[in-house]
């Protein structure tokens, strides 16, 4: 992999010329993770930034009693762990590979040094942080104001974008997640999410199989999500 070209496809660096990224690219270190392996844990030191090269990473937070919710799914081209790298604090969430994943890592010191010489990247970082803050505001708002079936429909439509290339044998959009994972993304119990999926299946909006939800009626699901 050409590290400078790789960085040019990461959103926060996309406005820079490849030549501007050569020195930074030389400082990247490749990491590989198997499905289920942890990139970093909540409360770990924020000592490095991960850029996803291949695979899929879930970001989760845990309560003191052990309950877990997923707050984001990140894929190739996304950066992971930028908040603690920026402020020097501890990791606010846990990052876990959902499939075999490869990341390119950059130490906090190298990233901050580059940021000091390329202040325009700071604007991109602020934009990224604001976008993720908006997403969290939306997540909180959905949990307060929307019922579980509506949240399930809305989340499945969002996941269609994440898994845009995933299709089943009939050509339907296929979300390769189990009900437990979907319930954690929605912020509800597995039982309530299962009931919502059963209702949508009876309405002909989707088909469920082992760790796969195929969407057969996008327009109908949009109506259920009030979109």
| Fold-level CATH name of the largest domain | Jelly Rolls
**How many discrete structural domains?**
2
Mean pLDDT: 92
Round the Cα radius of gyration to an integer and report it: 19 Å
Number of helices: 9
Number of distinct beta strands = 11
Largest sheet, in brief, is: 4 strands, antiparallel
Give the class from helix and strand content and strand pairing: alpha+beta
Q: What is the level 1 CATH name of the largest domain?
A: Mainly Beta
* Overall body shape: elongated
By CATH, the architecture of the largest domain is named Sandwich
Largest sheet, order of strands side by side?
Answer: 1-8-3-6
**Quaternary assembly:** single chain
| C-alpha termini separation | 41 Å
Q: In percent, how helical is the residue content?
A: 40-55%
- Quick one: CATH superfamily of the largest domain? Jelly Rolls
Write the element-wise H/E pattern from the N-terminal end onward.
Answer: HHEEEEEEHEEHHHEHHEEH
Low-confidence stretches: none
Task: Quote the beta fraction.
Answer: 15-25%
Architecture overview:
- This protein folds into two domains: 3-142, Jelly Rolls, CATH 2.60.120; 146-224, Winged helix-like DNA-binding domain superfamily/Winged helix DNA-binding domain (Arc Repressor Mutant, subunit A).
- It has nine helices and eleven strands.
- The protein has helices at 3-8, 22-25, 82-87, 108-117, 120-145, 148-162, 179-186, 190-202, 218-224, and strands spanning 29-33, 38-40, 48-54, 56-62, 68-75, 79-80, 94-97, 101-107, 173-175, 206-209, 212-215.
- Helix 6 (148-162) crosses helix 7, helix 6 (148-162) packs across helix 9 and helix 7 (179-186) packs across helix 8 (190-202).
- The longest helix has 26 residues, at 120-145.
């Amino acid at each position: 992999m050409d590290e400078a070209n790789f960085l040019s496809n990461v959103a926060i660096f996309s406005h820079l010329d490849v030549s501007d990224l050569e020195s930074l690219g030389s400082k990247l270190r490749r990491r590989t993770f198997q499905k289920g392996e942890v990139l970093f844990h909540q409360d770990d030191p924020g000592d490095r930034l991960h850029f996803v090269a291949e695979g899929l990473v879930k970001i989760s937070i845990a309560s003191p009693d052990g309950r877990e919710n997923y707050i984001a799914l990140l894929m190739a081209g996304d950066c992971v762990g930028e908040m603690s790298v920026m402020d020097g604090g501890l990791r606010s969430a846990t990052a876990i590979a959902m499939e075999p994943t490869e990341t390119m890592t950059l130490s906090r010191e190298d990233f901050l040094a580059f940021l000091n010489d390329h202040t325009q990247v700071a604007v991109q970082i602020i934009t990224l942080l604001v976008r993720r803050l908006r997403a969290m505001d939306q997540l909180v708002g959905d949990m307060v104001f929307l019922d579980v079936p509506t949240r399930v429909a809305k989340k499945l439509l969002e996941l269609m974008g994440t898994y845009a290339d995933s299709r089943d044998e009939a050509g339907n959009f296929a979300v390769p997640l189990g009900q437990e994972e979907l319930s954690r993304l929605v912020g509800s119990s597995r039982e309530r999410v299962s009931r919502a999926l059963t209702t949508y299946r009876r309405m002909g909006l989707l088909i469920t199989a082992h760790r796969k939800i195929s969407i057969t009626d996008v327009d109908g699901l949009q109506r259920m999500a009030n979109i």
